[in-house]
Amino acid sequence: MSDHECKTCNEYRRISRRNFVGISAGVVAGVLAPGWLPRVVYASSENSTRDIVVSIFLRGGADSLSMVVPHGEDNYYASRPTLAVPRPDSGEPNRVSDLDGFFGFSPSMSALRDAYDDGELLVVHACGLKDPTRSHFDAMRFMEAGQGGGAPSLQTGWLGRHLQVTAPTASDGVLRAVGIGAGLQRTLVGGPQTLPIADLDDFGFEGRKATRKARRAALEEAYAAWNEPLRTSADNTGRTVDLLRKIGFQSYRPSGKASYPENQFGYSLKSAAALIKAEVGVEAIAIDLSGWDTHEFQGNNDGHMEYLMMSFAESLGAFHKDLSSDNLKNVSVVAMSEFGRNLRENGSQGTDHGHGGMMLALGGGIAGGRVLTDWPGLNDGQLYDGQDLEITIDYRDVLTEILDRRVGNSDWKALFPDPSYKPRTHGVTI
Amino acid sequence: MREMGTVRPSFSGPQAPVLKRQGRLPAAASSMGARIPKHLIAEPREAARRVRPRKRKALASSAGAISAEQRLVQRATMGLNLVEMQRIDDLGYDGYLDYQLDHESIDNSELEDALTRAFPTLSMSPSELIRTYEGNQGVPVFELIAASIYRAAYSPRQLYERMVVFWTDHFNIHLFGDAQPLLKPIDDRDVIRRHALGKFPDLLSASAHSPAMLIYLTNDSNVRGNPNENYARELMELHSLGVDNGYKQKDVRAVARCFTGWRATGPRQADAGEFLFDQSQHDTGTKTVLGQAISEGGIRDGERVLEILGGKRLTAKFLARKLLIYFWGYEPKRRDVNKVANAYMNTGGDIKAMLRQVLKKGRMERAQPKLKRPFHLMVSALRGLFAGLDRTSHAIDHLFTAGHLPFNWEPPDGYPDSEEFWSGFILPRWNWATTFLDAGNGVELDLPFVDPSLKPTRIVSDLNAYLFNGALSAATEASLLAFLDSGKKIDKKRIHDLIGLAAASPDFQEY
Predict the structure, then answer these.
(1) Are residues A219 and A357 in the same domain?
(2) Claim to verify: residue A122 and residue A55 sit in the same structural domain
(3) If chain A, 430 residues long, is cut into consecutive pieces of 10 residues, what is the mean pLDDT of each piece?
(4) Chain segment A169-180, per-residue pLDDT in tens
């Protein structure tokens, strides 16, 4: 039914476009006052060789086959008559930008080309969660908790547990981890001195000035006598307000002429960069980019995927540029999604839930500039469940290696407590 | 409403995550002059005065030790107040539960009439909504969100409103994107609210026929020969059986085929936005769903699936567990799950029968403390204080900031009902509590204890009675008193600050 056009849904989609696309206005203009001092030097750095981990979750099941396209696979093109990105040698305007003769970036990912060419961006393909679930929510839960599958049993997240079992980088730091968002990502659950914050630049006490101090004192007293988790949450909140006030997010000026896109994800990464440069002892940051559940009108060059890939690549590309002069040598970014998508497109010019996906790692200590994979192939006999990319690298291998080699935590059993799991080293880091 | 509510989406369709500073929906251009009639709030307030709060016995000081009656009022309503406490005193535990469950006997016509006048989109047909507001979708969006706040806070059918919140999450539809601004109001009215205390199979079926749901989960492009699995998967995973619970990928594929052709009439048709079964796009072949062959070959295919799912004990258990988490505590006991599931199986999925089990006195006596989500927190403060609400923009701004604007959860699993998700971002709660009584935010307060001539101890103890039924913890009570009685002049503003502190206190975050 590839000729089916679904006129009705197209019409409804147009309704939404007409109304919503034009709305985004008044973006944080980033009034660039000159007062930005990159280092608050709030915390003494006792172990400055430990990388700060930035964990990006692409929620919804990102179509890795559109992001890093296996253009050397005939069956990719046969399976995606409307969605495949044309081969690098096709002469088409929206063709793949070749990386290594077999894989290439979709044109919407081109903002990551510099980081890749600098050897600081690594693609790990055919990678992911091996559990067969196709549920977004179970798969996200497993990956954020650091499980291999089975029944959801771990309540805390892999990054939260990492913080639990390691001493703070800065002994006098007040904020070890931030989840950018109104609710805490499971990735960070369990982490000490960890808070979800929707907007780092908007985290202060409101209400009239005359009583602000007294009100704060009353709340601190009441919460100090209360139960967990509210007691600690309140304590972290008060101290974090004081900390973030010292960081001028408004006046933050990215380095290297980096230009973050004016959307939520770009703003989050820009804030993260400011927080990293302030060197206040933050060790981990979790950021989400949602909307990858592209069951229809995926449109790699003009649809949901194009927007998402550009948003992702331009933001991460700007982050790379912004930090590359200095801090990048102590930053490891990992990006992952709960699963990839079906090799074959569905009848809605979209793709349904699949299995294998990919991860990206970016940082000064990442062995980038290549596509790391044990490629299983996309021919009929090679597919998982007859329809999806197989997984040959466990997502936990990538995380284990980064935490071990870049963050100095070799206690992978605490991070990924699964008796059947043994990490394999693939050469993610230098 | 006289206000120009600014409703700010966080997403528009799957493609555009929007920062609060970045996107603004056009304010409700045709803002209405109607208000909630003053006496709706004034009457309970008067009744509250007759209750004489100081005479109420102060109860134990830590969460968990309060009476079963107070716990029931806290769990079965969107926030306790003196009138509800008086009611349970009068009716007894079981009588109060009967009263709340028999929601149709509770007259809510005054509120509904006022809302209908204030917000015309609430009673429009889909085609009227599409015709009138296609180019101005901020209006139905704003009216739906504002009405949700008013109903939660002021409807006398409180358990019903609690269940509306529950089902809104269970059958989550993201309001911002595609046609949802124009069609979710219909789903809210004709699916969620119509069946909130009815039979679950009816609710499940209504949701499956809801154009907003079918478009949100892209079933409108699920067609013969090339199915789109999106709705089929979430129907089993989120709406009925629970994740990976008794079904396999082959069942997802088969269910998707059963629902081919289920969509909505087009926006240019005279009857736009209605459910449509398109036989020409329906896969008429035989499918096997959960071991059962389905070969009706028409709309009956999907209906059969709904009947099968609605009759499964796995569905009953999935719902039982969720209801217990919602009303009882984060870690329900297996025995309780089974009892509530039995109630479902014995009654053909009667929601009231399940609630009778969930809310049993013996069970509520052992209920675990729960953290209010931001919407609940806000509404419960308005309720406890018998506060009027003249405009909703401050409330909506706050809910957006706190991450809990109604209908603004993008994925289909609904806002989480978990402590670890909500317990970190408490600063917005404090900031709302400390500003909601400021002039200009539309909150109208008329309480006898907001009187600077009263003794500080009296003011604090009355506040304790109004918001906590006297169960405020000793530490919080001491901190409130210290704030008020610090030697600084006590004026109305300081008492407002005190009320804000009580609403921001840890005691008030839980219920």
Answers:
(1) no
(2) yes
(3) 44 50 25 32 50 97 98 97 96 95 97 98 98 93 94 91 93 92 95 95 93 96 96 95 91 94 95 95 96 90 91 98 93 98 93 97 97 97 96 98 96 93 96
(4) 888 889 999 999
| CA distance linking residue B349 with residue B502, whole number of Å | 40
DSSP string, A34-55: TT--S----S--S-TTSPEEEE
Are B403 and A182 a contacting pair at CB < 8 A? yes
Indicate yes or no: CB of A206 within 8 angstroms of CB of B507: no
Cβ <8 Å between B423 and A233: yes
Q: Which residues of A touch B428 (CB under 8 A)?
A: 182, 198
For A284, left (φ over 0), alpha (ψ -120 to 50), or beta?
Answer: beta
Q: Are both A330 and A408 inside the same structural domain? A: yes
Give the nearest partner residue to A215 out of B422, B476, B483, using CB atoms: B483
Write the CA distances from A393 to A97, A398, A399, B316, integer angstroms: 24, 8, 11, 38
Q: Clarify whether residues A311 and A223 are in a common domain.
A: no
Q: Dig out the tokens for A267 from the structure.
A: 């703003």
Give me the residue label for tokens 């107070």.
Answer: B70
**Same domain, yes or no: A299 and A224:** no
DSSP bridge pairs for B165: none
Same domain for A350 and A212, yes or no, is no
| DSSP secondary structure code for residue B297 in this structure | -
Judging contacts by C-beta atoms under 8 Å, the chain B residues touching residue A187 are none
The answer to whether residue A25 is domain-embedded is: no
B296-300: average pLDDT: 95
Alpha-carbon gap, residue A144 to A192, rounded angstroms: 17
CATH number at residue A146: 3.40.720
CB pairs under 8 A between A and B: 308
State the Cα–Cα distance between residues B14 and B69, nearest whole angstrom: 44
In a domain, A50, yes or no: yes
Q: Do the domain assignments include residue A424?
A: no
What is the CA angle B169-B165-B161, rounded to 5? 160
> Chain B closest CA to A427's CA: distance in Å?
34
Stated pTM of the model: 0.88
pLDDT in tens, B394-433: 999 999 999 999 999 989 999 999 999 999 999 999 999 9
Q: How far is A214 from chain B (nearest CA, A)?
A: 6
Which DSSP helix (H) or strand (E) runs through B375? Answer: helix B374-384
Distances B81 to A66, B74, B196, B508 between C-alpha atoms, Å: 55, 9, 23, 13
| Same domain, residue pair A276 and A233 | no
Q: Domain span at residue A224?
A: 203-246
A209 CB near a chain B CB, below 8 Å? no
Residues A321 and A294 in one domain: yes
User: Which residues between 56 and 95 in chain A have a beta carbon less than 8 angstroms from any beta carbon of chain B?
Assistant: 59-60
Q: Would A274 be classed as within a structural domain?
A: yes
Q: Fill in the amino acid letter for A302.
A: D
- Total domains, chain A: 2
